[in-house]
Design brief:
Layout lengths: L1 H13 L7 E6 L3 H13 L3 E6 L7 H5 L11 H10 L3 E4 L10 H7 L2 E4 L5 E2 L12 E3 H8 L17 E5 L3 H11 L2 H4 L6 H8 L5 E5 L11 H8 L4 E5 L19 E9 L16 H7 L1 H13 L11 E6 L2 E8 L7 E11 L16 E4 L3 E2 L8 E2 L4 E2 L1 E2 L2 E7 L2 E10 L2 H4 L7 H18 L11 H11 L7 H17 L10 H9 L1
Helix pairs in contact: 1-15, 2-14, 6-7, 7-10, 10-12, 11-12, 16-17
Bound molecules: NADP nicotinamide-adenine-dinucleotide phosphate.
Length: 511
């Protein structure tokens, strides 16, 4: 490749530089990338850090993942911006690893590369009908309401049904449920994308089902987020009382709790009788004792149910459905290729069994899979497909992980969801970055990482990108986007009005 030949020439030029700094490239400008960059800059006075991101905008999950009604979580971008403005740090947006620049090229140009590009795909359920229209990954829906340019045109149909079914009961599922159910007047004051606000204002969705394959004690959400969704104004909460039954006698230890048997049940929406569940959830007491958060979640759910006799100003309903997993998505009879219903299976936890028969009925035209994000492998990166992570120990990338032969990729590190899987809050990445930094520092001390063979770093990268006509978006250029979004937001009395297409974003940069 001609341009790459040019880059090799630059590389040779730089080998004669007398006191070159160690040059590190961080791939991904989300929390993992920025925390890593910040920590490297603090720990090593002579290191230069360049952060690249495939989007023209920085901050990854903070911008595209954090819900618009959680502005306090986004304050961390001030800290990230300070890091980006450090004279030893640069941000280059609109630079995609794999197409704008390959990993081998980056490794040639930098002394070290830290991969922190997160998880931009989704786990799948692997069941029939998953490809039907009307079924979305929660990530896509989140990107849509957060104005991610890749999901600008998602256009979920919120008008043809009054019911949305969300699979999974983690915090992402709760975010999605909250956005679907929260009064839009409240959302209008947030930085929600305007196309999403308009669609939600016209939405017919009145009922949201949150379906979990385990019980209320195992629901993957945290108490704060649960409290928030339960607190939505004029919302009726439905939980089958039998799902909340626990007994103190069960002595199943926590490690034994896993799904054992699946029984076929039927379709959503399900109406069942309490008496069918008398054997359920007896293990839960033990698990609650072991875990304060689980206990709190269970307590909140127990108290949340809206009494049947309560006055009914509520326009909207949130149903928590436990011990169910989707078995098959069913095609609509009226709309070819479109979701018409969901067949569920009943799940039973080990050690406890319940027979079940049910009269069930129901239709669903909107379904969201919130069962976890997934990282994508690039180039020849050592990748554990089962776990969806780059093979690593503590952040050092392993080229060979066989038991008798542990070999690291020199100068290649990983951080964030790509390193440990898609779990944890923004702050978790701080500790993750510290661990990766420790590997880098250790390799500097051991002489594995040195600047004895100077690398071209950012000059080489920019020259290469220029030769490929890549329009790099620097941090200064991002600040133009930022200012424009704030200006537009100001006109609508919201923190920012996000630019949501690639064209708009790049246009503002070049103005
Ligand atoms: P998560 O917390 O791992 O939850 C995934 C959910 O999907 C669980 O309920 C899980 O059930 C279920 N699931 C997985 N595979 C399934 C399958 N094959 N069939 C049916 N259900 C399945 O993931 P997440 O909600 O995507 O969140 C990712 C991370 O971001 C979490 O650590 C979360 O706390 C964090 N986050 C935090 C906030 C916040 O702090 N406000 C907001 C959003 C996200 P099992 O439990 O049975 O596996």
């Amino acid at each position: 490749m001609a341009s790459f030949g040019k880059f090799r020439w630059i590389s040779r030029q730089f080998t004669t530089h007398p006191s070159a700094p160690l040059r590190i490239c961080v791939v991904g400008s989300g929390p993992a990338g920025f925390y890593t960059a910040e920590k490297i800059l603090k720990a090593h006075e002579k290191v230069e850090v360049d952060i690249i991101d495939r989007l023209p905008t920085p901050f990854g999950l903070v911008r595209s993942g954090v819900a618009p009604d959680h502005p306090e979580t986004k304050i961390v971008t001030n800290q990230f911006s300070r890091a980006a403005r450090n004279e030893r740090c640069s941000f280059f947006g609109n630079v995609c690893l794999g197409s704008s620049v390959t990993l081998p090229e980056l490794r040639e140009m930098y002394n070290a590369v830290v991969l922190a590009y997160g998880a931009e795909s989704d786990r799948s359920l692997g069941i029939p009908g998953e490809e039907l229209a009307g079924i979305y990954a929660a990530r896509e829906f989140v990107w849509w309401y957060n104005g991610h340019p890749d999901c600008r045109n998602l256009d979920p149909d919120l008008k043809s049904t009054d019911t949305a079914v969300i699979f999974g009961q983690g915090n992402v599922a709760l975010d999605v449920a909250r956005i679907l159910l929260r009064p839009t007047a409240e959302l209008a004051r947030t930085d929600i994308a305007s196309h999403a606000l308009a669609a939600l204002e016209e939405s017919s969705i009145r009922k949201v089902y949150l379906v979990g394959r385990r019980g209320p004690v195992q629901a993957a959400c945290t108490a704060k987020e649960l409290r928030e969704v339960l607190g939505i104004k004029d919302l009726r909460i439905h939980i089958q009382p039998a799902d909340l039954v626990t007994t103190p006698t069960d002595e199943v230890c926590r490690s034994d709790i896993h799904l054992l048997t699946w029984f076929h049940v039927g379709y959503l929406i399900i109406h069942w009788t309490d008496s069918l569940f008398v054997y359920m959830i007896t293990w839960a007491k033990i698990e609650m004792k072991n875990n304060r958060i689980r206990k709190r979640v269970y307590e909140l759910l127990s108290k949340a149910v809206t009494p049947a006799h309560a006055p009914h100003p509520a326009q909207r309903e949130l149903h928590f459905v436990f011990f169910r997993k989707p078995d098959k998505f069913l095609e609509s009879n009226d709309r070819s290729g479109h979701l018409g219903g969901v067949q569920l299976e009943k799940t039973i936890l080990k050690g406890k069994c319940a027979s079940y028969t049910s009269a069930c009925e129901g239709l669903a035209w909107l379904s969201l899979k919130s069962i976890g994000y997934k990282s994508i492998a690039i180039d020849d990166l050592p990748f554990d497909s089962d776990k969806g992570i780059v093979t690593n120990i503590g952040g050092r990338v392993l080229s060979d992980a066989s038991k008798d032969h542990m070999q690291y990729e020199t100068g290649l590190y990983v951080c964030g969801w790509l390193k440990r899987g898609p779990t944890g809050i923004i702050g978790t990445n701080l500790y993750c970055a510290e661990e990766t930094l420790a590997c880098i520092s250790d390799d500097v001390v051991k002489g594995v990482l040195t600047s004895n063979s100077p690398k071209p770093g950012r000059d080489g990268l920019l020259q290469l990108l220029d030769s490929r006509n890549t329009r790099v978006v620097t941090f200064d250029a991002w600040e133009k986007i930022d200012a424009e979004e704030r200006r537009r937001g100001n006109l609508k009395n919201k923190p920012r009005e996000k630019l949501t297409t690639w064209e708009e974003l790049l246009k503002v940069v070049s103005e």
